[in-house]
Amino acid sequence: MPAFPLPIPRLAxxxxxxxxxxxxxxxxxxxxxxxxxxxxxQMIRADSFLLFVDDGSRDTTWEQISAACSEHACVQGxxxxxxxxxxxxxxxxxxxxxxxxxxxxxxxxxxxxxxxxIRRMVEAYRAGYDVxxxxxxxxxxxxxxxxxxxxxFYSLMACMGVRQVINHADFRLLSRRALxxxxxxxxxxxxxxxxxxxxxxxxxxxxxxxxxxxAGESKYPLRKMLALAMEGITSMTITPLRLxxxxxxxxxxxxxxxxxxxxxxxxxxxxxxxxxSIILSIFFMGGVQMLSLGIIGEYIGKIYLESKKxxxxxxxxxxxxxxxxxxxxx
Length: 330
Ligand code: UDP
Ligand code: MG
Known about the structure:
By secondary structure, the protein is an alpha/beta fold. The protein has helices at 24-40, 61-71, 86-97, 117-126, 144-159, 176-182, 192-199, 222-236, 239-267, 275-307, and strands at 11-17, 49-54, 75-80, 103-106, 131-138, 168-175, 203-209, 315-319. Keywords: Glycosyltransferase, Membrane, Transferase, Transmembrane, Transmembrane helix.
């Protein structure tokens, strides 16, 4: 057993950024002052650092990140060759931080997540937890639609037996070994918040109130939210495929009962009126079959995409002080 508390960690804070020119300077200031005060209180090592990932932004985000890298030795900047999406950008940042830090926190650039919770995360890390989940206690600042759809999604995932931390997104601390374990999951389309619980290791939660976006607009429109939800379901469970089989079984049972009914009616000299019921059952079965094919197709599409083993991202530049500029990108 390790002796607790663990030694003061070198902390990395990884921040994926996509078109975040409106919030970047605010985010940088906040996180620099947090690192500074935590280092002064000897909660983290003085060589702790921030790692900003530019996910193919089309505004001045990268220019601002590079300026911050030149100005502050504790800032690193990673530029992806194109927009790969939040999950891939976060993985790129985590892969770049791997091996450099003892504890790695990921947080969104808009600072909707409470930065002071990072202090409690580090305390939990030093108490021996490898994974510390940031859990949103109060979501009043999210829209009604976002809250309701999130609740529906969590319930759906729970019904399908997927272990997921409720009201947790990608604000968390990982220890060096938890991160190394996470990076061994090589699937192309990773759903990180579903994979982290699979990694295991001692874990705990810190609760915080989610605030509003400091500036700019959400980079998660409905289309991206639905894609992430679909990714979450198809990458974490095959329950929908089993439900199709169960549905097929139920429909077989019903049609058997209907056959018995028709036979009994025929032998007792009654005729069964049929036109409407035939039309309705044709439509119903057509719908069920198309839906089932769609679900099966979604999984087959996933196998197809995964089988190509394409890289998750390409790095265009990696800016950091006094260090080699390569790392494992897959
Ligand atoms: N983000 C990204 N790539 C994308 C979309 C978003 O790196 O394609 C980043 C974004 O800059 C932010 C984080 O992911 O740091 C979460 O996005 P946002 O805050 O807009 O999502 P919301 O809080 O509205 O769900
Ligand atoms: Mg946000």
